[in-house]
Amino acid sequence: MQWVFDCDAIRCRFVPMIRFLLILLFAMPTFGFARAQSVERVELELVLALDTSTSVDSEEFELQRTGLARAFRQKNIQSAIASLGPSGMAVAVVQWAGPGSQTLAVEWSKINSPNTANLFAAKLQTMPRALSGFTDISGALDFSTKQIFANAFRGARLAIDVSGDGTSDQHDPTAARDRALALGIIVNGLVVFNEEYDLGILASLDLTRHYENSVIGGPGHFLMTAESFDDFAVSIEKKLLREIIGPAFVHNRFGPTLRQ
Questions:
Q1: Which CATH code for domain 40-254?
Q2: Residue 206 and residue 203: Cα distance in Å, rounded?
């Protein structure tokens, strides 16, 4: 039996496939390089992690939302952002509650001017509440950490700002906090003493100690308190100002930097 190969038929059938494979082979490094080029450097990557567990009612959520929006409209906050230079900062908002209940409520935005700060404030003002449930600070920290390394920015400083009105009732957040610290992320906290769940000064001390021992950490980390959700706006403004300006000497991912 004699085998006859139709070269033209083979060429017609396989050449397009070979061409596709060659294009794919040479394009893969190009795509990788394009992704690397698309990462934009900023002075600060900041996740604002808001507690939306059951203990936070609709009115208190509204106080958090409007308080954040107001903060980004303040001249002192906008001046601090301007001091970062053209690279500015990248900010996102995470809402969190119980295990598996975390969401990126406001996407990452670059803020480097009063105009971009006002635009971000407008997004905050219309942010809907997405979650409710238990209080899992551990899950909030792990989720926020993932958001920092999954965006299109690369910050000289990395920070997670956790605000909440209760201790973690699901998992000890210490391990999640330590995972964030190991990746160079600073974790700061804002404890809100909820009037509806006021169990006295000892409970307030326990909540503060919980954040100090198991939630916050990293170079220059700090904890602030708000006596109630009514005080949230004032407290978050002070906290944002401190986070944006940063400590006098910062060892960031691009090398030691002395802030002027």
A1: 3.40.50.410
A2: 5
